[in-house]
């Protein structure tokens, strides 16, 4: 798979320079799907942007989503007629936009899409994620038909988690690419 067909889907507020997604982009040539507004993410806008990027690619894509990027994958897959353009998805630390403290900013994401994804996926969860309980992440994995990988207490699985370029995550991604 060509690096330009591996799409990085950050969540709300984007992924900073020390985040594993940014490191993968810088080191491996993966492509970030840039959103128009990282601070006020509107579901319809984010879905349209992902669709545009996918339609511009030659060949299938693998999606690498973090936080609200995971919800983007589910929402896009429920609406798009182009899901055949995605080979697989790595879904890391899904954000739960239905948490009371997140509803004011992420209101357009509710209700969350909870249906089987039409491509293979792996969901990576942490036992102490401040934005999604491991129980809720398990519900997402079940609803989306994703393989669940619990990596223990690693917070929101971001730069603050001390993962660096996260070789274990890269190994999970390579497993999906080989499917």
UniProtKB/TrEMBL annotation:
Highest taxon listed in the record's lineage:
Bacteria
The question of whether Hydrolase is a record keyword is answered with: yes
User: Which SUPFAM superfamilies does this chain map to?
Assistant: alpha/beta-Hydrolases
User: Per UniProt, what is one GO molecular function of this protein?
Assistant: hydrolase activity
Asked whether the UniProt record includes Hydrolase among its keywords, one would answer: yes
InterPro entries from the UniProt entry: AB_hydrolase_fold, RBBP9/YdeN
**Coiled coil regions in record:** none
Per UniProt, the keywords (alphabetical) are:
Hydrolase
Taken from the record, one Pfam family name reads Ser_hydrolase
Q: What protein does this entry describe?
A: Alpha/beta hydrolase
